[in-house]
C-alpha cells in the first residue's frame, strides 16, 4: 500500500499508538541545554514580591497604631486582585461582602451567602503571602445567635484560610463578637453605616451627623472594643466625629468615608482602581487612582482587531515544527503545501 494512500484506521494507529514504556535505559532527567523548560498555558501569576516582607500580624498592626503610622487596607475578591494588593505592600486585605456587587453582579451585599464568601476567601488567601487577610461574615450568617456566628467564623477561618473575620454591628452584637474572640479568632468590627442593614437605617446614609447619632457611633465603637475587636471600621461618618471616636478608642479605627484622622483607611479595590465602565456611580469618599477599565478595553479591542485581520497569532506566537517532520506528516495525510 502506498504511504500517500492510507486508511483512517492506520492513520489513527500511527497517530495514537501508545508510547514506549519506561526502561532502565531511559534517563530520568534532561539537562537545560537539551530541552526547553515550558509551562502550561495557564501558569501561575508569578512569584512573591522581592524582597519579601514579613508577615503582617495582630502585633504588627498594634505596632503601627502605637507609632501613629496609618494602616492600609483594601478589598480583594479573587487571586489576581489579592496578588497585586499583596505585592503593593498593603497591610490588611479584606474579602468584603462588596464582592456580591463587584464580583458576582448582585444588586447589594445582602444576596451573597456564606459558601460564596468562603470560596472567595480561599482564592484570596492563596495570593496573600504577607498581608493580614480578613473575611466578611455575610448577612444571615451571624445574626441569629452568638453560636451561629462562631460556627460561621470558624468555617471562614478554617475553610477560607484567612486570619480573621469582620462583622457589622455595635452594642447589639457585642456578645456575638465576644463569643468569637474568646474562641481565638480575631474580629474586625464595623460601625457607622452598616450596608447589610441599609433598609433598616433608610438606605446608604451618613451616620453620626447629629449629636445623638454621633453618641451612638461612639457607643457602638466602645462596645466592640470591649468585646475584643482588634480594630473597627468607621463607615460614612463625619470626619470630626471619626477623629473624636479614634481618640477615645485604644484600638485602631479604619476609615471609609470618615476623614483622614482615622488610624487607617480602606477602599474597595474595584472602585479605587477604576475597574468599571464610564458613568457608574461612586460614593463621594472614593478617589479613583487608576483606570483599569480603559486599559482593559484598549487591550481587548486590539486583540479583537488583530484576530479579525489575522495579524494574531504571528509566527513569534506559534510553535515550530521541523520541516522534515512536516513533510512526512503531509505525506501521511495526503496534503502537499502549495
Topology:
Blueprint: H1 8-16, H2 58-66, E1 71-75, H3 79-87, E2 92-95, H4 99-102, H5 114-125, E3 132-136, H6 146-160, E4 164-166, H7 174-182, E5 187-192, H8 211-226, E6 231-235, H9 239-248, E7 253-256, E8 264-267, H10 269-273, H11 292-308, H12 323-333
Parallel strand pairs: 1-2, 1-8, 2-3, 3-4, 4-5, 5-6, 6-7, 7-8
Helix pairs in contact: 3-5, 5-6, 6-7
Give the key terms.
single chain; 338 residues; alpha/beta; 8-stranded parallel beta barrel; 37% helix; 11% strand; elongated; disordered N terminus
Query: How far is the N terminus from the C terminus?
Result: 25 Å
Strand order of the largest sheet: 1-2-3-4-5-6-7-8
Low-confidence stretches: 1-36
Mean pLDDT: 88
One letter per element, helices H and strands E, the order comes to HHEHEHHEHEHEHEHEEHHH
Strand content: 5-15%
The helix content, as a percent range, equals 25-40%
> Structural class given helices, strands, pairing?
alpha/beta
The largest sheet, given as strand count, sense and whether it forms a barrel, is: 8 strands, parallel, barrel
Number of helices: 12
- What is the β-strand count? 8
Shape: elongated
- Radius of gyration computed on alpha carbons: 28 Å
What would you note in describing this structure?
It contains twelve helices and eight strands. The protein is α/β, with parallel strands linked by helices. α7 links the parallel β4 (164-166) and β5. Residues 1-36 have low confidence and may be disordered.
